[in-house]
Amino acid sequence: MTRNATTVTARIVNGFVTLQDNGDPELLKAGRDGLSDEDLARLGTGAAGRPQAIGGNPAGVVLDADGLSDAQMLEIAQKVGLSETAFVSRSETEGFKLDFFTPARRIAHCGHATIATFSYLAELGRVGEGATSKETVDGPRKIIIRDGAAYMEQLAPRYEDPSDWADRGVQEQDVLAALGLAPEDLDPRFAPKLANTGNSFVLVAVKDAAALRAVKPELSRIDAISEALDLIGFYVFTTDPEATSADATARMFAPRYGISEESATGMAAGPLACALYDHLGVRRPKLLIEQGHFMEPASPSEITVELNLDAGRITGLMAGGYGAVMKELQIRLDHSPAPAAGESND
Question: If you average pLDDT over residues 129-134, what whole number do you get?
Answer without folding.
Answer: 95
